[in-house]
Amino acid sequence: MRSSILLAGASFGRACGTVSSSSAASAPISHHPLSSLLQSISSLTSQSLLWDSFVAYSSLRLHSPPSFLLLLPICSLLSCSSSLGALPQGRQLHGHLFSLGFQEDPSLVPRLVSFYSCCGAFEEARAVVECSISTLCLSWNILISGYVRAGSPELAFSAYEAMVERGVAVDHFTYPSVLKACGEMKDLSKGRKVHERVIGGVLGWNLYVCNALVSMYGKCGDLIAARKLFEEMPQRDAVSWNGIISAYTSRGNWDEAFELFERMRVDEKELNVVTWNTIAGGHLKRGNSLEALALISLLKRSGSSLDFVTAVVALNACSQLGFLRSGKEVHGLTVRHLFHEIETVQEDPFAEILFEKATTQNLVSWNCMISGFAALNWLEQTSQLFRDMVLSGLQPNYVTIVAILSLFGRVADLRHGKELHCYITKKHEFEERRLLWNSLIDMYCKSGRISVARKVFNLMKDRDEVSYTSMIAGYGMQGDGLTALKLFDEMIDRGIKPDSVALVAVLSACSHAGLVIEGQMLFGAMASCHGITPKLEHYSCMVDLYGRAGMVERSEVIMSTMPVEPTAVMWAALLGACQVWRNTEIGERAADGLLKTKTDNPGHYVLAANMYACAGRWEELARVRVMMRDLGLRKAPGCAWVSLGDGFHPFVVEDRDNGCADEIYRWLGRLTDHMRDAGYVCDRNSGFHE
């Protein structure tokens, strides 16, 4: 294997060398500095563009960078190959690692094992582990869990034995996979041997290991050992209870399972839908259909989300009892839930197939599909579905229109929004639907057409707090804080009591317009005049208000004295204000506070890095970069969506795939020249400057 890998490495090196600077694919990239190339590779791999990523890496090699700079892009390429199951490309990368001397790098060996396991190449994954000189257990754990997932428990146990024989320390991630393999094999003797080793180590009462032991004994049929271990566990979670209940139910011992379930309920232990389904199914099998339905009813009333196993049990129970009406209700809930689940995971073809196969496409099913697509911001699909609905002869109701208008507002699709406005005005049944007119106002405000929104607002006969809040927010976005304040006063004069959202809108309007005194007065009068206790979002508005006005000291005081912990968004607002007003002292404290929140927003880390760069704290800047790398966060490339009349088109930084790319970049060059002539100077004191 080693010789084949070395040959692959030589092949990869030749491939890198043959990509010339005149190549059409790599020419735009090869002229960039190393940092830009590294960013390009990171961005391309995150989008699963494997071929383009390899082209960018080849261009990087042309610059002859130090070997250590190649480590991170290779990791990105390997992860991308793994997610796509690109075995030949991954093998090529593996060989390339030998030529660079990285074959024993501790960060790469687990990635290689994971790659080969994901691709089903377990012989190569095993070879990587066995050839490694590392004594860390991570690579072995990945291999063992990979065998288990692939349905090869015997090989998983064999790898575990080899791991122990080599003297590699076993941890609490190893045992659950090994014990699961024993359970799958129904090999009680091997499971007991693993248990003996657990008892002799330091992980005897680790929760995850104990749960795996209970499950193993249950699958192997030793219910006495499973129950004894379960009762002796110092702590239990939902997995523990599910494991022991499943052990009894798999052997048909329903009385013990029911008794354990009642203990969970009496002791107020955590109950999840899996446990409920198991017990309800047990009652159904024993002919207790009413008890099964009663349990499902309790589950629904508890606020837990029902799944399709619940629906199957409920439908069977209704069938046995002859409850036709209840069965229809369960069926309707199931279909709507199925549409919702499929849409929320963004699998539109499956939702559409299910919808098309439905024997009756009624208003509810149409609304489910339209609302689902709208929630995912799929503009074209939503618009087409609405047209199909109208052409089918089915009249949309106000629920349909509100869902679509909300989408048009979020994506600022004014053209389609106007068409829908015309449709609404032609339908007399919509005249008294205040929710519709509020949605229209919101759509026009978010699209920047505040004057049209005001006309709709003025025509409304029955305005409520939502109508006023939408208009106040719209004027706030336009920077017209004075008009927003006038509307707020008018709202109060008409006897409409503002709610928490209205206060957020008016405070935000003051912030965008620089109306500090007015914002202070409103915030101070929230409790006394409006009976609203300031919440986190109101404090956030005040932090932004003072920050935009350059009063960053007051922003910091508010954050330190408010009754709740500042959020990452608040720290980021303060940090951004400090950068604008060049206050590095408070900015450094804000950056420290932001990092302590452990935010998962890459933009927040970029803000902190830029502040550390301005303050000359290079060690902290490096720490931020390391944190982003460890968390798998990347600075997302800039992207804009532009409507050209025939739909929306994306424009992404560094994108050369657009058919008009050459002309676009020429115009960008001219704009850059105009900006420079106008006196713009790029701020290069940035930790992430590109």
State the main characteristics.
690 residues; mainly alpha; globular
Would you mind describing this structure in some detail?
One of its GO terms (molecular function) is RNA binding. PPR repeats lie at residues 136-170, 206-236, 237-271, 272-306, 362-396, 433-463, 464-498. Keywords: Repeat. InterPro entries: E_motif, PPR_At4g14850-like_plant, PPR_rpt, TPR-like_helical_dom_sf. With 690 residues, the chain is an all-alpha fold. It is built from 39 helices and two strands. The protein has a two-stranded antiparallel sheet with strand order 1-2. Strand 1 (639-643) and strand 2 form a beta hairpin. It is globular.
Helix and strand layout, with pairings?
Elements: H1 2-18, H2 27-30, H3 34-46, H4 50-62, H5 71-84, H6 87-100, H7 109-118, H8 122-131, H9 138-149, H10 153-165, H11 174-185, H12 188-200, H13 207-219, H14 223-232, H15 238-250, H16 254-266, H17 273-285, H18 289-301, H19 308-321, H20 324-344, H21 348-357, H22 363-375, H23 379-391, H24 398-411, H25 414-425, H26 434-446, H27 450-459, H28 465-477, H29 481-493, H30 500-513, H31 516-524, H32 526-530, H33 536-548, H34 552-561, H35 568-580, H36 584-596, H37 602-615, H38 618-631, E1 639-643, E2 648-652, H39 661-677
Antiparallel strand pairs: 1-2
Helix pairs in contact: 1-6, 3-4, 3-5, 4-5, 5-6, 5-7, 7-8, 7-9, 8-9, 9-10, 9-11, 10-11, 11-12, 11-13, 12-13, 13-14, 13-15, 14-15, 15-16, 15-17, 16-17, 17-18, 17-19, 18-19, 19-20, 20-21, 20-22, 21-22, 22-23, 22-24, 23-24, 24-25, 24-26, 25-26, 26-27, 26-28, 27-28, 28-29, 28-30, 29-30, ...
